[in-house]
Amino acid sequence: MLNFISIGNHIFSRVIRMENTIVLEERLARCERENDELKLKVEELSDFFENASMPLHWVDAKGIIIWANQAELDALGYEKEEYIGFPIKNFHADPEVIQDILYRLSNDETLYDYTARLKCKDGSVKHVLINSNVLRKDGKFVHTRCFTRDITDRQQEDQRKNDFLAMVSHELKTPLTVVASYIQILLKKKQKNTDDFGLNVLIRMEVQVKKMILMAHDFLNLARIQDGKLERNSIEFDIDQLIGEVVESSRLLTTIHTIEVSGCTGVVVYADQDKIGQVLTNLVGNAIKYSPQGGRIIVGCEKLGDKVRISVSDQGIGIRQSDQTRLFERFYRINSKSNQGASGFGIGLYLVSEILQQHNSKIEVKSVENQGSRFYFDLDGVSIAEGVHPVIKKS
């Protein structure tokens, strides 16, 4: 009896071991399948990054390139041993740009379409857009994840366009200036007799010629901005005098608007007078253009401590909220039924924005559709009403 029980226990133990072995073998087979699948995914991911058509690289916390894919190496012409392991700053054409990029990334900023210039092995320079952020583990900087997109061809095409615009604008400017001078001479002669018709014709001619000259100035400045050659020549001047000149000229452009000046007396600013004049001319011109029913346009000044806020308000068609963020892009024009008759190239507000950036200022807008718009910006300035020469902050 005991032998029978012992044999039964032995058989049961073997069965249990066999079952456990089968279970373990099934688990092992499943683990092997999962491991193979994981290996395949890792290989596919590795292939994706290594052989992607877009250049990619990683940079560590010290600014050293620790990995780059083949597209990055091919784009710049380097071998792995010439690129990986070296400081990323060695391959940037503009030291201040890579310094800014690394600073932003180290502060957890994500970069979108950041423009930069990279040096190729053959000595050429590529214009790129950079999209990048940082991988962190337990709060520690591990490496950047940087995608670069070559826009050299687009940049060169833009440069050709800018050169063409500059050439055409320059060629137009001289004959237009001569025509304007002759019109001034004829105006002076006509004002001495009673030929009202001839006088009105000359006034209208002068207005149109001035518009063309301003357009030529806009295109020239656009080209200078793209080339980084827009210079700032700042002086101290009375802003009220400049505003008065701009308003007086602008009144010739319309017969259905009332252009008024508010609060701009006894104020001096330190800025580029010609360029601030262009800013005001463009803003008032826009107010006229986008107020087709007429109404009041107010050019105002408001003292805010050591700043002067200058504004241009109208009672025009207003601007949709969705358009306000793009107003200051180059060549951007609002597409709506209410402004279909308005002429222009979409560079006026872009130039306004760029000129004010050069003055450490910014153009702002408040607008409600069908209720009008108010554009405003700040400049350094103080009151001189009491005859005390101001101490002006010069940037």
TrEMBL record:
<keyword id="KW-0418">Kinase</keyword>
<dbReference type="GO" id="GO:0005886">
    <property type="term" value="C:plasma membrane"/>
</dbReference>
<feature type="domain" description="PAC">
    <location>
        <begin position="112"/>
        <end position="163"/>
    </location>
</feature>
<dbReference type="InterPro" id="IPR036890">
    <property type="entry name" value="HATPase_C_sf"/>
</dbReference>
<keyword id="KW-0472">Membrane</keyword>
<protein>
    <recommendedName>
        <fullName>histidine kinase</fullName>
        <ecNumber>2.7.13.3</ecNumber>
    </recommendedName>
</protein>
<keyword id="KW-0902">Two-component regulatory system</keyword>
<dbReference type="InterPro" id="IPR036097">
    <property type="entry name" value="HisK_dim/P_sf"/>
</dbReference>
<dbReference type="GO" id="GO:0004721">
    <property type="term" value="F:phosphoprotein phosphatase activity"/>
</dbReference>
<dbReference type="InterPro" id="IPR003661">
    <property type="entry name" value="HisK_dim/P_dom"/>
</dbReference>
<dbReference type="InterPro" id="IPR003594">
    <property type="entry name" value="HATPase_dom"/>
</dbReference>
<keyword id="KW-0808">Transferase</keyword>
<feature type="domain" description="Histidine kinase">
    <location>
        <begin position="167"/>
        <end position="383"/>
    </location>
</feature>
<dbReference type="Pfam" id="PF13426">
    <property type="entry name" value="PAS_9"/>
</dbReference>
<dbReference type="InterPro" id="IPR000700">
    <property type="entry name" value="PAS-assoc_C"/>
</dbReference>
<dbReference type="GO" id="GO:0000155">
    <property type="term" value="F:phosphorelay sensor kinase activity"/>
</dbReference>
<dbReference type="InterPro" id="IPR000014">
    <property type="entry name" value="PAS"/>
</dbReference>
<dbReference type="InterPro" id="IPR004358">
    <property type="entry name" value="Sig_transdc_His_kin-like_C"/>
</dbReference>
<feature type="coiled-coil region">
    <location>
        <begin position="21"/>
        <end position="48"/>
    </location>
</feature>
<dbReference type="InterPro" id="IPR005467">
    <property type="entry name" value="His_kinase_dom"/>
</dbReference>
<dbReference type="GO" id="GO:0016036">
    <property type="term" value="P:cellular response to phosphate starvation"/>
</dbReference>
<keyword id="KW-0175">Coiled coil</keyword>
<keyword id="KW-0597">Phosphoprotein</keyword>
<dbReference type="InterPro" id="IPR035965">
    <property type="entry name" value="PAS-like_dom_sf"/>
</dbReference>
<dbReference type="Pfam" id="PF00512">
    <property type="entry name" value="HisKA"/>
</dbReference>
<dbReference type="InterPro" id="IPR001610">
    <property type="entry name" value="PAC"/>
</dbReference>
<dbReference type="Pfam" id="PF02518">
    <property type="entry name" value="HATPase_c"/>
</dbReference>
<dbReference type="InterPro" id="IPR050351">
    <property type="entry name" value="BphY/WalK/GraS-like"/>
</dbReference>
<feature type="domain" description="PAS">
    <location>
        <begin position="41"/>
        <end position="85"/>
    </location>
</feature>
